[in-house]
TrEMBL record:
InterPro entries: B30.2/SPRY, B30.2/SPRY_sf, Butyrophylin_SPRY, ConA-like_dom_sf, SPRY_dom, TRIM/RBCC, Znf_B-box, Znf_RING. Signal peptide: none annotated. This is Uncharacterized protein. The keyword Metal-binding applies. SUPFAM superfamilies: B-box zinc-binding domain (SSF57845), Concanavalin A-like lectins/glucanases (SSF49899), RING/U-box (SSF57850). Residues 270-454 form the B30.2/SPRY domain. Keywords: Coiled coil, Metal-binding, Zinc, Zinc-finger. Residues 15-56 form the RING-type domain. It comes from Sciurus vulgaris.
Length: 454
């Protein structure tokens, strides 16, 4: 082949990021192709919206499939380069003066055909050097793909920890949540104990102490994840470097096993996100006091057979509510309340997904089939992978309290215009909406999805 044509052919098979032959080539929508690991690392380090490194065209696609045809062309080009390389005197068999073109899997040596048939190597597994190199390179590529997933998981966890730290240290919303929880706790104690109670002091002091401990845990977790990110990135770049090595160097003794062990060690102890959690301290006598306001409203809650799911959207990236999916099908009681104080209990058992509270009466009377978040005061448990998160509406808060089991108490207080939720088994306050937030007639609301439902 003409040298100019050969060089042009090789240029087309070269990644413009690393300037080496393409490894695990992927092609973007604009038509430009790159090594998949190079493109991933380029986007990760650029910290800008995904775009083509050559033409700068934005890319919505992040998960690319290997361009098989381009991969095969690269393999052909490497084989041509390898044959040219092995023709040099340096890689001639010293004993037989033949070209080494066989790879011995047992000894990890390059052999000529005569040596491979010798008594020393006859029983060993042999294959052409180019096949062995492609096989090893493919192993490195698979390892990189797996390793990249670990890197992205660590990066997502790091973002979560940063977000939590901002919430627990800087966020006005969380400070407001802690303030509201303190005020709600004080109000609960005033109902049960007119005078300042020693238990109340301990309760509030514990809340402050747990907040400080949580911040320390989050910062320690963040430091571990930052360190792990450096380790992961370093090994990933070393894997990339190995893939770009010439075939002969790639087949050197035990390189793959060495890197495989190293990768396993690095990912063996991946730091996991901290789940901040404040203990729901019991308030002595709280449930007994509220039961004085217990009426028959809890028995009037009627569930319909066609209630299938609670459509509650959540954005995985920023852990915030997705307003586009904030509607849900509801079941409500047949009695409305506009004044007074009422208390009832609902058994959520050990269900993962449930919601209890009250909904605006006018919505029910208009026979709406969907309810907006601003029309409800709810405590919700939403399943996330292997655990549940507690949330409230009006206002929307993620509650950093252990998910209660058994009965949830709902306290409707029109005198203070608020709705409160209790963990009945522990006689503890889960959440109480700010005073003055409830200013419209409501009906009881209840949803519980069985655990065996998809």
């Amino acid at each position: 082949m003409d040298s100019d044509i050969l060089q042009a052919f090789q240029r087309e098979l070269t990644c413009s990021i690393c300037l080496n032959y393409l490894v695990d080539p992927v092609t973007m929508g604009c038509g430009h192709s790159f090594c998949h690991p190079c493109l991933c690392l380029f986007w990760e380090e650029a910290q800008t919206p995904a775009h083509c490194p050559m033409c700068r065209e934005p890319s919505q696609q992040r998960d690319f499939k290997t361009n098989i045809r381009l991969k095969n062309l690269v393999s052909i080009a490497r084989q041509a380069s390898l044959k040219h390389f092995l023709n040099s005197k340096e890689y001639m068999c010293v004993t037989h003066k033949e070209r080494n073109k066989i790879f011995c899997e047992e000894d990890k040596n390059l052999l000529c055909l005569l040596c491979s048939n010798s008594e020393e190597h006859r029983a060993h597994r042999h294959c052409p050097i180019e096949e062995a190199a492609e096989e090893y390179r493919e192993k490195f590529v698979k390892q990189m793909r797996s390793f990249w997933k670990q890197m992205k998981e660590n990066q997502r966890n790091l973002k979560r920890e940063n977000r939590k730290i901002n919430q627990w240290v800087k966020s006005m919303s969380l400070q407001w949540y802690v303030h509201l929880h303190r005020e709600a706790t004080k109000a609960a104690y005033r109902m049960v104990h007119p005078d300042v109670h020693e238990e109340e002091k301990e309760h509030l002091e514990t809340l402050i102490k747990e907040h400080k401990i949580t911040v320390q845990q989050l910062k320690k977790s963040k430091a571990k994840m930052l360190q792990k990110r450096k380790q992961l990135k370093k090994v990933f770049k070393e894997l990339m470097k190995m893939c770009h090595k010439p075939d002969v160097e790639l087949l050197q003794k035990d390189q793959f096993n060495f890197f495989l062990c190293r990768c396993e060690l690095v990912v063996m102890h991946m730091p996991q996100p901290v789940r901040p959690q404040l203990n729901a301290q019991p308030i002595t006598g709280l449930v007994d006091t509220l039961k004085h306001f217990q009426g028959e409203c809890h028995s009037n809650i009627m569930l319909f057979d066609d209630v299938r799911s609670l459509i509650f959207g959540q954005d995985n990236e920023d852990e915030s509510l997705n307003s586009d999916r904030s509607n849900f099908f509801a079941a409500w009681g047949d009695q409305a309340f506009a004044s007074g104080k009422y208390y009832w209990e609902l058994d959520v058992n050990d269900s993962w997904d449930w919601a209890v509270g009250v909904c605006r009466d006018s919505v029910v009377r208009k026979n709406y089939t969907m309810i907006e978040l601003e029309d409800v005061f709810l405590l919700l448990s939403v399943k996330e992978e292997k655990h549940s998160s507690l949330l409230t509406t009006s206002p929307i808060f993620f509650l950093h309290i252990e998910k209660p089991l058994g009965c949830i108490g709902v306290f409707l207080d029109f005198q203070n215009e608020s709705v409160g939720f209790l963990n009945v088994a522990q006689s503890s306050l889960i959440w109480r909406s700010p005073a003055g937030s409830l200013n419209f007639p409501v009906r009881p609301f209840f949803f519980r999805r069985p655990n065996n439902y998809g």
